Description:
Residues 33-311 form the TauD/TfdA-like domain. The chain is an alpha+beta fold and 325 residues long.
Amino acid sequence: MTESREEFDVVTERGKPAVILAKPERVGGPEAWVERQCDRIRSVVAGHGAVVVRGLELVELPRIDLASRLLSTSVMVEREGFAPREQRRRHLYSGTKWPSDQVMCMHHELSYLRTAPSLLMFSCLTAPGEGGATAVADAAAVLGDLPGDLVRRVAGEGWWLDRNYHEEIGVPWEAAFGTSDRAAVEKYCRDNDIEFAWTDGGLRTSQLRPGVVTHPGTGERCWFNQLAFLNEHTMEPDVRDYLLAAFGPAGLPFTTRFGDGEPLDRATVDLVNKVYGERTSREPWQRGDLLLVDNIRMAHSREPYRGERDVVAAFADPFEPAALR
């Protein structure tokens, strides 16, 4: 279905996110078009949860940076990243370094932060030859499909994220917290309700976060967490076995628990990922595409790919999940 609006059309198709067909040549180029249309674009995001803006040909970092600022109220600097990224500009980041032949499971970006982004913006500089879509899944629908006892448990108790910042694997604590000052890290942890302890290997943290939130715009209850994605059972078995042998169960780079402290079993992790899969929609990347995602309403993933892939991300419009329970 195609919905006509001034200076752009919105195309919707089953199994795909909405696509805006931009017409920037009418108003003097991509930046002028985004500035003129930003309120309408944000209304499409509010209506659909995610939208691909196609036709802007945004492939230069300064122009992407400007577009992300025009489309948001406040851009954020990443903290507590779980895997390495390259910072391309102050508020633009490369995709997470993750094996190209492995899926990055559905998750809500940085949902373990006390203050998380509510808006994500992804820009495609180089489209992969095959695969590599940034797929999305409706979090309210996922919540409705999950077993009631699991939803009630996570809504009532929240979820724990346990992390070990090792020098050998993952993100060093200096990079994750943006400082090499231990006192500054300790203050950050106290300010953000994070339990912490310095270890021989680096830093260990634990944080309890809400797992179900109410969307401030729609009033819908949404499954909002990384309970399954950051659990040890999502790791490749050989990788998990190696890490357990090297660091022990308490030394894994990351894992998750229920809010009462009970570990997750593989069946629960597999069930959550299965439901996400049933609610997934995707649109293959084209060079110059811009994808906006409501990070509360929609989870997202990165699918396996072949060839070169270069997608940069910006995080924006912070909100406090705990305040939405």
